[in-house]
Structures are given as structure tokens and as C-alpha cells.
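User: I'm preparing a small set of examples for a lab meeting where we compare how different chains pack in three dimensions. I only have the primary sequence for this one, and I'd like the structure in C-alpha cell form so I can line it up with the others. Please keep the answer compact; I'll paste it straight into my notes.
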Amino acid sequence: MSTEMTALLALVVAVAAFVQGTSGLGFALIVAPVAGLLDPTLVPVFVLATMVPLNLYVVVRERGALDLRGAGWISAARLAATPAGLMLLWAIPQQQLGPVVGVATVLAAAVSLAAPTFTPGRAAYLGAGVVTGLTETATGVGGPPLALVYQHRPPPELRSTVAMCFLVGEVASLALLFGTGQGQTGELWPVLLVLPALALGAGLSRLVHHRIDAARMRFLVLAFALISGTVLILG
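Assistant: Understood. Below is the C-alpha cell output for the 235-residue chain.
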């Protein structure tokens, strides 16, 4: 990538890290469409690898609110579905990943916006884990199903539990991608370039995450996802 493209990607990563550190979701929804537009080869390895340190930070920061039961069911289902996500990646030509990311983003955001209030149970946890395993391994976007399950829970519980589920799933997806040759170590170089931006966005979120209305932030994130996903589909 050119210096200008790298700078733009770093800016987007900083904004996305701030948004997810504050609201508990949004990183992949923001970064994946932009990364797909800049360079389709950045999806999904770049998105997955960049989220690992961010989610580790959020888990440690808000570990007291973590829902271990929900995270356990989601992670079990997500790990079981990871191989199917890899098969989906094999089935999609590289040039088609951009539109696929866009469609997945728009559909997930639309479903999240329209979802009614409910109390999650085991079936919801398992369903969210399966869908996340499919979409995150193939496209790097897996947050909407998890956000859908926890969207009506207290913000600290949403942020910490979703981050834990992300963390487990991202490590599993990256291991499988590299182990099967679908991921290359050279794809991690852009991750190193944007780490300072990631740290900046995450650090700023610490200053305001307890002050910002999470529901309003969630709406803004999903609205952005609808717009950026549509641009990616049309592009």
C-alpha cells in the first residue's frame, strides 16, 4: 500500500478502536469495508489480527462485568463453526470478497437495528456463535450477532463479553487460516503499521467509555455500517 493508503487505514483503525472500546462493537464493521476498498487482500487476516490486542485490552479493562456462561456457549459454537467459515472463504474468489463483506455488513447491521428487546438464553448464545464463526472467519466481520445478543444488557457486560468471544474466535480463525495456507505471514505487516493508531483509539476510549450513551453510539455505528457496506457492494 502507498503511504497515503496506510495513513488512511491507520486513521480508520484509530476511530474504530475508539468506537469499539467505547460501545463494545463496531471495529470490524468500520474497518472491514474500508480495508476491502483499499486492498481486498487485507480481508480477513488484517481485520482479525488487528482486533486481537484491542479485545484483549477491553477484556482486561472490564473483566469484572464478564458473562462467563454466555461467553462459554458462544465460544464453543463459534469454534465449531470456524471450519465452515474457512470453507466459505475457499468458495469465494478473492475479487468477490469485497461485495461479500459489504452484503454481510449491511444485512447484519439491518438485523441489529430491527431486533426487538429480549433476554438471551442458550439457543441465542449458540446461534450467535455459529453465525459469528461463519462470517468472521470468511470476512473478518462477526460482531453484529454478538451485539444482537447483548445489545440490551448493561454496557460493561456487552463490551467485556463480546470482547472475550471475539478474542477466542480471532485466535482460532487466524490459526486455521495460517495452518491451511489461506493466510500468509506477510499479511501481518500492515497490522504492525497501525498498532500506534490502535493504541491511541483504545486509550481514548478509556477516558469516555463510562460517559457516552452506548445505545446512541450503537445506532451511529450500525448506521455507518449500512453506508460503508453499501459503498463496498457498489464499488
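A couple of notes for your slides: Residues 46 and 191 are 6 Å apart (CA to CA). Residues 3-234 form one domain.

User: Perfect, thanks.
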